[in-house]
């Protein structure tokens, strides 16, 4: 029983270190647009020009509609690095 009590802090430390590297908080999204009044995550990242211009896309099934690309699913922060309107076939 005495050995078990002395190993508990070591096991807690090992668990803490192991779980520290299991976080996926820094995963970068390709971008989000509003489609059919719902957030839609893009499968590819069309915004990679390195400019400060806002990124905009249009889909092949509805070329007449231009969608603003956002960085998160709350559709609050427009994504930059655009250069014109990108056409996607998603």
Describe this structure in words.
With 90 residues, the protein is an alpha+beta fold. The protein has a domain at 32-88. It contains 1 helix and 5 strands; from the N terminus they run αβββββ. Strands 4-3-5 form a 3-stranded mixed sheet, with no helix packed on it. It has a two-stranded antiparallel ribbon with strand order 1-2. The N and C termini lie far apart (60 Å). The mean pLDDT is 86.
In short:
The protein is an alpha+beta fold and 90 residues long. The chain has one helix at 2-20; strands at 32-35, 38-41, 56-59, 62-68, 85-88. Pfam families: DUF6520.
Spans of at least 5 consecutive residues with low confidence: none
SS-based structural class?
Answer: alpha+beta
H-E string: HEEEEE
C-alpha Rg, in Å? 22 Å
Cα end-to-end separation: 60 Å
Average residue pLDDT: 86
Q: So how many helices?
A: 1
- Quick one: biggest sheet? 3 strands, mixed
Q: Order of strands in the sheet with the most strands?
A: 4-3-5
> What is the general shape?
elongated
Strand content: 25-35%
Total beta-strand segments: 5
Portion of residues within helices: 10-25%
InterPro entries: DUF6520
Pfam family, one: DUF6520
Features of the shown structure:
elongated; 1 helix; two-stranded antiparallel sheet; alpha+beta
Architecture blueprint of SSEs:
Layout: H1 2-20, E1 32-35, E2 38-41, E3 56-59, E4 62-68, E5 85-88
Parallel strand pairs: 3-5
Antiparallel strand pairs: 1-2, 3-4
């Amino acid at each position: 029983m005495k050995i078990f009590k002395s190993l508990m802090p070591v096991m807690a430390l090992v668990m803490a270190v192991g779980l520290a590297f299991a976080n996926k908080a820094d995963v970068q999204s390709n971008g989000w647009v509003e489609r059919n009044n719902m957030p839609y995550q893009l499968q590819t990242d069309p915004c990679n020009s390195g400019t400060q211009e806002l990124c905009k896309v249009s889909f092949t099934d509805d070329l007449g509609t231009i969608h603003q690309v956002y960085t998160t699913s709350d559709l609050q922060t427009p994504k930059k690095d655009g250069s014109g309107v990108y056409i996607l076939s998603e």
